[in-house]
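Posting for a labmate who doesn't have an account.
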Amino acid sequence: MFVFFGGLFFLLFGRLLSIQITGQAEGRPMAVMAEAKYAREAILQAERGKIIDRNGELIASDTLSYRLIAVLNEKATEKGAQEPRHVVDFEKAADLLSRFIPMEKSKMIEIRDKAVANNSNVYQIEFGKAGRDISHETMLAIKEAADKEGVTGLQFIEDKKRFYPNGNFASYLIGFAMREEDENKKVSTVGKMGLEQTYNEALTGVNGKVDFKTDRWGFILPKSEKQIVAAQDGMTIQLTIDKTIQNFVEDAMNQVDEEYSPEKMLVIITNPNTGEIYAMSQRPSFHPSTRVGLTENWLNDAVQNTIEPGSTMKIFTLAAAIEERKWDPFAEFQSGQYTIYDKTIRDVNRTGWGRISFLEGFQRSSNVSMAYLLERMGDRTFIEYLKDFGFGEKVGIDLPNEASGIILDINPSERLTTSYGQGSTVTPIQMIQAATAVANDGKMMKPYVIDKIINPNTEETVEDHKPEEKESPISAETAKQVREILATTVTSAPGTAKKFALSGYSVGGKTGTAEIPKKDGPGYLSGDGNYLYSFLGMAPIEDPQLLAYVIVQQPKLEIGQYGSDPVAKLFTSIMESSLKYMNIVPENNESSSTVPISEFIGSDSSSAIEELREQGFSPVLIGEGGNVISQYPQKGTKMNKGSIVLLETNGDTTLPNFYGWSKKMALSFKMLSGLDIRLNGDGYVTEQSLSEGAVISKDDPVVLQLLTPADLHTPAPQDEEKEEEIIGG
């Protein structure tokens, strides 16, 4: 016995000595085993990047949501606990939950039964998609109902949900992202469409973690060091889209959709001087949070679909003829029909208008006039101009899966039909790019929608997109002459675009009526309304600040209505609202009271303020004074007397009285000052959270409440003067 126990002792002693010397047991390091037993890790969730408009207004971001869990295992309830922490009556719990989440009671019981069948000791279950993305309000409602009805064992885990505060807003451009579970049961937000999908990698953040040590019961050990790896939020994508102009587009499209129920609609609004897209939308459309309205079409029609443009293509046929010096507006031709080989084309009224001038032919949108222009300049020369305008190849916009279209160039009849927009195909974004050359004095600008990509963790700008000029086929003189002719389609008696006239602004453009190819065979659709109606227009025509392409396909027309009616309603509503929002002074207001703004950058702010007051403006200082480092509006902008002019200097900013300011001016103040100014609503400022004269830092939020003139209450008699000031601002 002595030898036996002595041997055991020496064996145990040798084992302990071996572990002490080597630090290993069974070939595994003891320190690592201890670390694995007591080390814990908490995940710090990164936020998916925000998508914001050109002024920093929110378009898409992460928001707090909850995930629902039902605890089934009785071990979750400790002995002596006053209330159960597990579900005691699952049928009762399922009945309650079916009132708040989109899942039937029977389906919940089926999920529970299947989980228990696979594992009799299952601890908890979830309810798939129906149990995720639960709002804070719904979570509180479920908890309140559970307390009242005695339902136990329901728990909520904080989670992230993609939030689209503007609803149906540029949906095919922005796209959507949703929570998905991968093969490892890891749930994350994944972009499925639009910018959310294209920039999914940039928008997806990197989770952080906290490493710490616990005892056997899971409590953090005292004095144990935490190792924190901070989460890296996803990139912020700032668009060229202007939220206010986009809302003008969405509202106008909703009204036209309700009145005419077209098969499709598309609107693109651009700054022709830079190529920046201010708004882009289509119908049918959908709500990105719920996907309600999403059809089998997942394509952004502005970029990924092609169309036969119809007579809007005549703008570029005209431009080519003028550049080639083959345009004589007063020369005459016989309208009605034109035959080339075995193909005869006709004007819209079949018989024509007799012998008319080329200028009148363009105003009437004569197809035959285009045929005679091709004779003058040569149809192959014309095709080369179209290629130089960018047709037949991608424009290179920063959006995915861009189509290129096809310019038919096999025989003379194809080149002829292309001259008035039939047969060949284009993308709407190609039409926009080509039209910038006309609107921008011969400088053709590449369209783009991404302004900047910003790293929110460092505030570093990762990408900064700038206007990009492309080689243009026409001169400034040609562009100006084309604009003058486009204006006559609106102002002349035979013009086809008279209903596109704007109140207070000169406009020029070209209407289009294109045939629609049949989906199931050769040929085109026929019958009333079975056309693609469009307008490519710009304003003010002398110096265009906005370029718009509007398409309405197959509207439901009543007797006496025309296909151009819904197109005109879209164009005029959007353009008038947008030009006023941009502080473009209406031409009928340009009188002795309209004064161009001088250059004040580099000047002393005191002298600049004095000069502005002498000219009748209302200067507002941003900063403490000194040299002016920037101003708004820019030099040369014509403004009515009494208008606000912002002057930025260095130093802290004293808050002005924002009452009556337009949203555009308030956003400009926000951009120049860098202050945390939050705008609620549209129109004009009626309230501000901090009073005039307050000196604040960039961390102090200021809330401005805005109302449109239509929403403002009828003022009391003593307030009439102030009400006029708001609406006139």
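Reply:
Got it, the structure tokens are right above this. The chain is about 30% helix and 25% strand.
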